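Researcher: Structure prediction, please.
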Amino acid sequence: MKILFIIPYSRQKNNGNLGTAGSFSAVPPKIHTISMDNFRPNHMNRVFHSGAVSDTIEASGGMDMQIRLAENIRALRRQHRFTQEQLAESLGVTPGAVYKWETGLSQPELAIIVELADLFQVSMDVLIGYELRNNDRESVIERLKQYVHDRDHVHGSDPVDAISDVEKALQRYPNCFEIVYRSARIYRVKGLYLKNPAYSERAISLYRHACLLIGQNTDPEISEVSIHLEMAQVYISLGQTEKGLEILKKNNPCRLNHPKIGEVLASSCNDAKGALPYLSAALLDLTVTHMQIVMGYLNLYCKQRDYENALLLLDWALAFYPGLKCPQKRSYLDKSEAALWAVRADVLWRLEQKEDAADSLRKAKVAATAFDREPNYDARNIRFVSAAEAATAYDDMGSTAMDVIDTILADSDEPMLLTRWMRIQNEE
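Model: Predicted structure follows.
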């Protein structure tokens, strides 16, 4: 079952376009452009690639450094699939020299160590004798992800200094999107919970950098829009409300940021008039999303024959509607409610609760009859919604609410339920 809205996008005289399906739109407030400082990379920072075997370092003693250097040269040579002869040729030394480095019989000169670091694409401190600590790039990324979910790290009570680890990661991978983005999130949550403006400002800087690296991103749930949403929330937490709103309004496809914009206008800006169109549109979108989620879960549970959870879900879903109904007014919510009562009857029938199923059918009949007597698809009949222009709902459930019930029960593989429905229809 699907519900959508078709409504005018704007009341402006020169705009006769219609809004997108499945949505509500009011006249958007004026949107200002936002400028972003150009990122100037620090050329003193090397860019390390996936060939690096580690990044975070722990100092060891002098003799241990020599042993680690030998191990690292050998490991990195094999990782890059060089023979000792090929490595020697690349560096202009003899194969015997490479053999001695790898066995710890001698150490390369400093200039050769620099060449080795460049050749293997690792930092100097990784190549020479520091202890490795599972710090390849993917391990670093996973560790940064975990910091955000570990409240001890967020509140600063963990003995491991998350910020120190973050900065080391940024030093070694300054232009890796995942590391920059995850680091921004860590600074954001620490700035929020510790009330540390410096951390929040650092988060904004990193979010800006992440936007420039977005081409590396492979996560479909992350985009410039989602990054700007997080950035805007940081600005708002810093008290820079206008800046935050500016970003939210500019990066607002499909009214994604309407709830937040409405909330900020109503609370931080004391602009109830400006907030109302955003909140109304967000509420209408919520009713559509609610039905989509409910129908998705219902299909999932019914295909798994998990009718107990399907029933719990339906009871939750049906509790959503009464609070949105205006007294003495009909809306498409009545039609949606009738459909859910019919589905609830089907689920109860499968659970062998046949009298309860019949009661649900009677409630479906009451809701459907009331709607069909005065059908109304105008979303302005929903409580809390304020819209100067008409907002009209459309669905694929059937021409009337009674048609919807008939279709749901006819599609069921419980023929006796349909028979019971036909009897209930004839009840006074």
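Model: Strands lie at 3-6, 392-395.
Researcher: Thanks, that helps.
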